[in-house]
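Project standup — Tuesday

K.O.: blocked on the structure for the chain from last sprint. Re-posting the sequence here as requested.
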Amino acid sequence: MTSILFYLFLSILFQFAGCGEISSQDNDFLSFQLFHIEEDKNRSNFLFSTEKRSRSRDTSVPGKGTGSDSDWQKKCFCSANTQKKRWNSCQTEKVLAQGRIENIIPAQLTGRTIKFYLYIALEDKHGFFPGNGSYLPGTMKAIFKVKHRGMDFTSPNAEIAAFKLARLLQFNQVPPAAFRRLSESYLLQLLKKMDLKKANKFKHDVYSGNNLITGAAVYYSDGFTNFESTRIYTDWLFKKKDTGLGVSRKKLAKQMGKVILFDFLTGNYDRFSGGNIMKHKTGRLLFIDHGAGFGAGREWKKQKAWELLRKLKKVSEEFVARISQLSNVKIKRCLKDTLSENQICEIINRKKKLLEYLNNKYKGSYY
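H.V.: unblocked you, prediction finished:
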């Protein structure tokens, strides 16, 4: 009886959240199961051979973990049917947020933004597990991204929200990300030792004077290279007739077609500016740098998103079905700790407009 009243309370609560009506099907969100990345262990560094989860939480300077183990159980969408001998993206997210940091290194000394490599321990009573941090074996390598003043494409919240939304859509081509707090003064000292200009830029664009700075720890995926030759693939997507792409290239084009729909949902206008698509030798694409998403709905951003969407003449039927089946309640519950209420409402409105367009005005085909 108590559980029934609880579901009823949630239904009433979300109906007054300002994001439209809630259907009866939306009340099943507590039974939602996290998808599992179904790639062979030898080809994917999202998976680790262990039955144990990392239980370490870093509480020391320079880094601090976020959330207790009990809090994490509530936040994470792990189901009781989780494959015990594999780590899924949920467990990866937990390590990113809570694991003990072994080392921090400035990631790049060129470009407009400042990032750091984090090497996070993967351990339990049995010792270290294989990780993706080749610099330090037994560690998980991540990129720490922080908000830069005056740069609307550097939102840590957007990086994390994009991963969570992708997970809801079973779109396993967005790297896991989680909030992380690091010492501002420690990061500044690291930069001063390597590049004084970058240290000054950090003080000007990032430094707030607070003890800790919150950013996004984004999983670093090894084995991927920058993928820039996109024109022949978008041509296939933008034309009704087949342009003669081979089988392997069509697979790449179809993956890009999905991310165009995904970026429309997130409001990310920065996909094809360069350096935001990575390619593995197996033909799998990874879509990174989501910091421009979920921002203020400036008119030119909306126009750019609609122009790209209207160009599509081939769309993934399976991915559209997943978007259609994704309930508003699931979106709210998944993102309520990451985005503002207005940002979540904008996602729901974009989803509605996307489906209306595809159902009523889209003249292309489905694959």
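K.O.: great, moving the ticket to review. The longest strand covers residues 212-219. The mean pLDDT is 77.
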